[in-house]
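Example 3.2
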Amino acid sequence: MITQAYEAYVPEQSIDGIDAGRRVREDHIRFDLQDDLEFSTRGLESFTFSRWRPVLFDAMVVAASIEFADKTVKRPLSGWARRLNLRIPVHDPRRWAAPATSIALHDALGFLTGDFWSITFIKRRDKASPPAQEPLDLGVPAEAIIAYSEGMDSRAVAGILGASLGDRLVRVRVGSNAVDQPCHLGKKEPFATVPYKVKTHVASRETSARSRGFKFAMISGIAAHLAEARTILVPESGQGSIGPALVAVGHAYPDYRNHPLFTKRMERFLGALLKQPVRFSFPRIWDTKGETLRKFSALDAEGAWKSTRSCWRSSQWVSLNGKRRQCGVCAACMLRRLSVHAAGLREDSDVYICRDINAASVREGVDSQFKQFNAAFEQYALGGVLHLDDLAAMAGLEGRAAIRRHAVLLAPVMDSSVDDIDMKLSELLRRHAIEWNSFVNDLSPQSFVRKWTRAVL
């Protein structure tokens, strides 16, 4: 008797990158490198160094093409994976198709997104113009690169390590707001912003956005190559780095966007492509976000942490009276609120749409002027609370097997023993559980957060 295993439906789509009048093939989605990909002159100029090469421009086009495919093709309702066939014009197809580069690229991308990718490269019909500005000079040799945004972790870790590294720490801005693009004393900053923007034309695009990790790792790798730095610092705390991979949501593929298992694959890919070794380092991976914030706040006399943002949700869902807030209840916002509490700090409730998490329901906690509340908003809140609660539960006996399995995977990429990683991960989760229980216990007995948790009261 032969039993056929159940196979989930995997949608397949092909995308053609189009340059210089090239035609899209039948039944392929068109990604026009002129119309759908917008390069910023100012942004490119901030990447102008004497080591600029066409391959670096191609690397941005590749990252943009992957982002376009990721956003354009919806995931199946009853599954996760997609088959994405992508053709991209580059200056030197042989360099990109070389086995060491191509295999590492597909390995990193497939592992990150949980999809099946098939990427081929063809020769560009025209050469891209190099950035026009005179080459920038960092002044002192760069020691490390850090991906820097308006997020709390990046602001805090840049402040902590910047205190000792000074100008040897180069910030690569991966945010889009003006707050992320400072200009000191009129001097133009290197790596001031992601120098391109991808346009999508589908009415209902895919929102899981797992390829963002690839985009930011690629931009950081280009910056490290240009600045001749060998280390890229990943600022996320252990909860933000390892947590999403330990506690998956529903049928979703584990989130590895800031995880050592993904960055190790990016090291192999970037080394093969750019012929220069680079190492991703996690200086706060065994600390909680609250511990990192507490250390930074001791150096942060002006309270810069308060101007950071953590919310995952787009401005469409977190704007009120023309001002962008944070939702206050998604997993990222709940981790922020937990971390502020753990650090012994306070922030104004009006930075959030859900101002009062002591309320008996999410709807009651939302600002009365917010008119877009719906069932999805409440589901985000439930997901945010349960993610942190489930992560805290892993500190107990029920989490031992999963922690050990994760330690076995992490040990080789972190150059450590399984027992050492097991001990550090267990201790991290124990401290997270203590912070979470303290946070929940300080809420009102009627709080909707307390009703959804199993914290020790």
